[in-house]
Design a protein that fits this description.
OB fold (Dihydrolipoamide Acetyltransferase, E2P); five-stranded antiparallel beta sheet; 2 domains; 18 strands; Rossmann fold; eight-stranded mixed beta sheet; LytTR_ABC; LytR-like
Length: 303
Amino acid sequence: MHEIKVSEVIDRENEQYIGFEEESVTVIQMPIEYIQKVIELTNHSTSVFRLESSARYYNRLTVREHLKFFNKWYGSQMDIDNILKQFGLEPFQKMKLGKCSDEITQRMAYIHAMMSNRKCVLAVNPLYNATVDNIHLFHRAIEQMKRMGKAVMVITHSTEDAFVISQDILKLNNQGIKTVKTEETPDEPQSVLNRLKARSEDKTIFVDLEDIEYIESSEGKVYINISREKFVIESNLTETEQKLKDYDFYRCHRSYIVNLKKVREIINWSKNTYSIVIDNPDKTKIPLSRTKYNEIQELLVLR
């Protein structure tokens, strides 16, 4: 099956691979720029079909005519009437696609991937603006593709969408790829703090400390920041600081705790104004208190 070198996506040395696995689905959350890189790396592959909700079709063809065209083009033997029924398209089968809603176009993209004769399917943000019905239908499409022997890889920038698709997801960041733990995963011994518990919609997730870029307090809530995403934690900032005091985290400001491993540089804007630049694609800047300037530099030198 097709494999993608992680080093070619994150533009850093890394020995890992992202692989398509036959008769299974792999779900990976990653920043938008990495999604674009994966698309570029698979663009000319003859074994990978790219499923995109915003895919363009022939606006003058009806829904049924499109399905007949897909069947003929790919040599598929799927029963069109059955597909129309399964995906709730019977009322729209005579409607030209140019007049169909985004919801219907998204369903056509799911079906297109099913009918494709390529063994690998790369689904790019497949639940973007998806209705509840379409979320159910995407799950149905995945199960059918697995039964057909296809290897499905879902890449999305949204952790919430990733968890809607699967309980077991991977996360790709500039350190590589790793599994995201959920509350169904047995806890590690309490004597060692490797993760913080956070909330993502109605899910409890366990975030690896090394993935955290910084923690901030805003409007009465405390957020963990990871690759452009924020997750709420229950502890206040002082409690969180105490939990992390033996790890590479530092209270750099009254409202911020920074992961020292994620510090790219410190900028001195004026005599008493400083910022910490985070080592991420956006080079996020967070405030550094004047009284903390010398101490954090010493800590960074000692690391």
